[in-house]
């Protein structure tokens, strides 16, 4: 799809969700121009203060990393980001669910949860904004967001245990395979670059941890950053998942599924009796308590959680019986079976760029 203008990616190098999208643009071999996000312009274009935003050569505006994947795949199906076979496709969706809802915890913990982490992140933010005043202000907002997500001094041990388990499982996997689903990148890899590129690799404390304990993961970050076409092989044959991926899915599923489901239940309860006259649904509907490993973790129940789980379940419930059986068998015992068994009673849609309930 050669045009006479590049795609534009508006984001930041420190940004989690920009890091989800950048590898997808590179993998698709699109001509794109990455810009430091112009937030007033993004507000004007989308009505929202979120990055990343992609502007196509024709001037279409794409917002939300999940939506950006869908549109990229629809426009340029080759090379593919989305596996067509049920088990691999659902695996990729579940990994993206982990990233969108829970991967923020290790990312925020290592960036802001220690003196060295916070002081180096503040310096990075100030350098990025070209002003220590603006950098400090942005950092203050992130420190608050970190607590709302459930990354606090009380949960830091559990988050570190989770991260160590994840690094170990991913290292064992990437010692054998180039990417999560085999020898070709998929949107699962792009999604997992969300926590791994901007935060875990870009930040001082976690970078040291990766280099000391998870070198195969560093190799994978490098491959996802430069996904050259001539270095892409195939996803595993026969819709298989690598045995090594099972351990990764177990860390993600067992630790993350309870948090996602608690948030979704809280959002649904709120939606049962939501005020009729709401112009916009809120980003969060209050706090909810969950168990993260064996620690109590209090986190904001974000309305986006319902949208995230719906994305997985829409794919799952449309599978034929044989596909659903194969998926059930593959994810049984990972913790993700509880996600696949959930049936939301409210449905979310996008009204423009804004999340809304279908009946609104
Ligand atoms: N669902 C959106 C989330 C985007 C998002 O939260 N981006 C962060 C930066 S990494 C942001 O813009 N935050 C601004 C805010 O929370 O107000 C996506 O997947 O693109």
Relevant terms:
Glutaredoxin, two-stranded antiparallel ribbon, binds glutathione, globular, four-stranded mixed sheet, 360 residues, alpha+beta
Could you describe the 3D structure shown?
The protein has 360 residues and is of the alpha+beta class. The protein has two domains: 7-75, Glutaredoxin (3-Layer(aba) Sandwich), CATH 3.40.30; 86-357, no CATH class. 57% of the residues lie in helices and 11% in strands. The chain has helices at 16-27, 39-46, 65-75, 86-101, 104-112, 115-129, 132-149, 156-176, 187-201, 204-213, 215-225, 243-272, 304-317, 321-331, 337-341, and strands at residues 7-11, 32-36, 53-55, 61-63, 284-292, 295-302, 348-351, 354-357. The strands form three sheets. Strands 2-1-3-4 form a four-stranded mixed β-sheet, with helices on both faces. A hairpin with a 2-residue loop joins β5 and β6 (295-302). α4 (86-101) runs antiparallel to α13 (304-317). The longest helix is centred in the last third of the chain and has 30 residues, at 243-272. It is globular and about 55 Å long. The two termini are 37 Å apart. The mean pLDDT is 96. Glutathione (GSH) binds at residues 15-17, 49-52, 64-66, 304.
